[in-house]
Amino acid sequence: MLNPALAEQSGLLHLPEIQTAFIHTPPGIPCQYKITKDPGNGYGYDIYVNGKLFVHQPFVPGLSGVKGFSRKSDARKVAILVVKKINLGIMPPTIKREELDSLKIKY
What is the chain's mean pLDDT, rounded? Predict the structure, then answer.
């Protein structure tokens, strides 16, 4: 989990199940992520913008196949990256294999 001071600086507020970040444009619209668990397939994440499901990602993005993240912490790292891309206006917030490697995601 991120250091609380670092989370505050980045605009991310860490809550038990749903994590919240605020999109800067338009101001004040919440962007949240929730780590999901598929008993047979590992972890994934959902991204909500203004309370509505925006991204449902049950498996590791940027790879072929439908394998979930083996570690909850890996799903969280990628969900945070997606939120950051949304905050920057990068649409769609696509994740590439190189980004997974730079985050040291196990796949």
Answer: 81
